[in-house]
Specification:
This protein is mainly α. The protein has 3 helices and 2 strands; from the N terminus they run αααββ. It has a domain of about 45 residues.
Amino acid sequence: MQLIPRTPMPALTPLLPLGEQLAEPLLVHGLAASEAEARRRVVEALEEAGLAPARTSTGAVRAS
């Protein structure tokens, strides 16, 4: 059984970059073959949603 939040804010943690949180299910469920592919798909999704992904020095993707 898994908790399904009704609002997106409780589903996201401010301690992890948004890109990492969005990429994790892709990797866990085998929807991305590698971390690089997961990051690419996250960037595409953020851009499609109208959010500008920003790269950090660690390579993590953050939405701005």
